[in-house]
Amino acid sequence: MPSQPSIRPADPRFSCGPTRKRPGWEISAVGTGSLGRSHRAPLPKQRLGEAIERAGALLEIPADYRILIAPASDTGAFEAAMWSMLGARGVDVFSWDAFGERWLKDAQNELKLPDLRVFHAPYGTLPDLSQADPARDILFTWNATAAGLKVPHADWISDKREGLTFCDATSAAFAMDLPWDKLDVTTFSWQKCLGGEAQHGMVVLSPRARARLASWRPEWPVPSVLSLFGASDEQSAMFEGSTINTPSLLATEDFLDALRWAAKEGGLCGLIARSRASLAVLESWAEKTPWIELVAEDPAVRSNTSVTLKFAGPDTAGMDEEALRGLVRRMTQLLEREGAALDILPYPKAPPGLRIWCGPTIDADDIAALCPWLDWAYEEARE
Questions:
Q1: Average pLDDT, whole number, for the chain?
Q2: Cis omega (within 30 of 0) on the bond before 207?
Q3: Helices 207-215 and 73-85 meet at what angle, rounded to 10?
Q4: What mean pLDDT comes out for the span 309-329?
Q5: Phi-psi map region of 93: left, alpha, beta (phi>0 left; psi -120 to 50 alpha)
Q6: Which of 114, 257, 258, 300 is deepest in the core (most CB within 10 A)?
Q7: CA 121, 170, 115, 108 torsion: positive or negative?
Q8: Taking a C-beta distance cutoff of 8 angstroms, is the pair 302, 279 a contact?
Q9: Cα–chain-centroid distance for residue 106?
Q10: Looking at residue 4, what is its pLDDT?
């Protein structure tokens, strides 16, 4: 049995969302000049516009794309795009985890799209992406946060497509190289890869997406909080920081701090390198550890941010799901008690195991310090 490790992670927070703040973050780093003011006043509006501009530059978004801030995190951003823009064509939905299933349920049960094709895969695998029809709209998640799988590339998306691609890119934006020429409607939140505060999402619109907004109105009523129709105007104030509803200026200032840190870390390339370094440490440990393995067996589709692991080996081979979830609970309670790891439970609907965040705000040294604690907790929890 391994002895209790002597070195703890410098920061034990490994939650997959909201995620750890950037290294060295302190509340004093967050600007306060815009707080307590109307979000329509010059300074707060300038801060919101700066958040859009810095995010676009960091993500290397093309100059003819437009970005806006949406309410209700990535969920609100993606649902706003669905409610405002779907229905003009048939839709292909690719789903392989809890969030993809959420968009599928919206399409089936709320929007009741009559021409809907569903491509679903269980946790640990991707559906057949080659089935995407260029004549139809496509909905998919770039990085499945709950399942720990990512899309390996965008070659399956046609350059000559007639439909639009709708990409949920939360847990991917700022940690993976997104091929913008393949993406028409892309959403993400502040609370994932850069450790920002929750409740704010962003929508990135290609010229083709804006043309859809200008030419199409769905048959269902669209609540104002989900309406993106104003973004059809190329001069829309939405692209300068005018928001659908009142934003949190404290969260905006915090996001700006994260964006400035990211630029100093080498921009997008630096953020991707940080995430991949943490993943590499976890992969190396899993490869030599007999009781655990990565859910995503194929490295090409393995997430480098939300890394999911499952039990393996003879010790747990005969355990049912309830027993395995009990083992997970005991392990995570031990780790939290010892200050070694917080919030590494799997997504509630995912198979029992562990889920460890390896996004850009995580230091690889903390992952290295965590691994011996996982071994210790496993042995302790089995007794």
A1: 97
A2: no
A3: 50
A4: 96
A5: beta
A6: 258
A7: positive
A8: yes
A9: 19
A10: 95
**Range 308-330 average pLDDT:** 96
Report d(CA 174, CA 171) in Å as an integer.
8
Q: Is the pLDDT of residue 383 over 80?
A: no
Q: Name the least confident of 98-102, 134-138, 153-157, 228-232.
A: 98-102
Three-state SS string across 73-119, please? HHHHHHHHHHHHHCCCCCEEEEECCHHHHHHHHHHHHHCCCCCEEEE
Instruction: Report how far residue 224's alpha carbon sits from residue 123's, in angstroms, rounded to the nearest whole number.
Output: 35
Q: What is the pLDDT of residues 281-304, one digit of tens each?
A: 999 999 999 999 999 999 999 999
Give which of 357, 328, 361 is closest to 14, Cα–Cα.
357
| 285: Cα within 13 Å, side-chain hemisphere | 20
Which amino acid does the sequence have at 174?
A: F
Looking at residue 351, its pLDDT comes to 87
* Per-residue burial over 249-271, b = 16 or more CB atoms within 10 Å of its CB, e = otherwise: bbbbbbbbbbbebbeebeebeeb
Residue 151, both tokens = 């899309």
